[in-house]
Write a structure and sequence with these properties.
- By secondary structure, this protein is α/β, with parallel strands linked by helices.
- The protein has nine helices and five strands.
- The protein has a domain at 5-30 and 82-182: 3-Layer(aba) Sandwich (Rossmann fold), CATH 3.40.50.300.
- A five-stranded parallel β-sheet has the order 2-3-1-4-5, with helices on both faces.
- The longest helix has 15 residues, at 121-135.
- The protein is globular and about 45 Å long.
- Bound molecules: adenosine-5'-diphosphate (ADP).
- Residues 13-14, 35-36, 39, 56-57, 60-63, 68, 89-90, 92, 96, 139, 149 line the site of adenosine-5'-diphosphate.
- Adenosine-5'-diphosphate binds next to α2 and α3.
Length: 191
């Protein structure tokens, strides 16, 4: 068995994945891999990939699987000595989950668990509009785009709970409460 801790931090937009990742990285010495952050870096650098991704992100749609899978593969290969990874916003489709399993199984370092933050839709919309007012993230400023992202999540991403449950790796976490309380729930679930 591998000693590495590889966590999929899962949940709808606005569930608090980014906030909670920061604590888990510190506590367990993990490397943070956020496809949203990687895509925003491409947009910022004005690359061709960034230009193509921006339109989709601003419409609340998912970026193509091969693009995000390639970004994750590059980052993992550049960090082979990491103690483990925390995957944030990835995988978002079944094809992404299968590709990730393929990459990790080839190294005998499988996913340890999926921690799924559960938050009701109206609370998500409220949090994201609040974030949009201060962060400048364009996809957080329009309620229509927010609801589209939540729909994409329900349709394409939420089914991954079954994918990980069938491997005995799914752990649901109540994502409503104080940041500290939610961190404690995650730490307890990691065990
Ligand atoms: P949030 O969790 O608030 O939606 P993210 O930063 O994770 O924020 O993602 C922002 C956008 O980036 C998504 O709406 C989507 O367009 C794109 N994106 C991020 N990760 C992926 C992924 N794994 N697959 C496809 N698109 C992605």
């Amino acid at each position: 068995m591998s000693e590495k801790l590889n966590i999929v931090l899962f949940g709808p937009p606005g569930a608090g994945k980014g906030t909670q990742s920061a604590f888990l990285i510190d506590r367990y010495g993990l490397m943070h891999l956020s496809t949203g952050d990687l895509l925003r870096a491409e947009i910022h650098a004005e690359t061709d990939l960034g230009k193509a991704a921006r339109e989709l992100m601003d419409a609340g749609e998912l970026v193509a699987d091969h693009i995000v899978i390639g970004m994750i593969r590059n980052k993992m290969e550049a960090n082979l000595d990491a103690k483990g990874f925390i995957f944030d916003g990835f995988p978002r489709t079944r094809a992404q989950a299968e590709a990730l399993d393929g990459m990790l199984n080839a190294k005998s370092e499988p996913i340890t668990c999926m921690l799924a933050l559960e938050v009701p839709e109206e609370e998500l919309v409220k949090r994201l509009l609040g974030r949009g007012a201060t962060s400048g993230r364009s996809d957080d400023q329009d309620e229509g785009v927010i609801r589209k992202r939540i729909n994409e999540y329900e349709e394409k991403t939420a089914p991954l709970k079954e994918y990980y449950a069938s491997q005995g790796k799914y752990k649901g976490i109540d994502g409503v409460g104080s940041i500290e309380d939610i961190t404690s729930r995650l730490v307890e679930a990691i065990g």
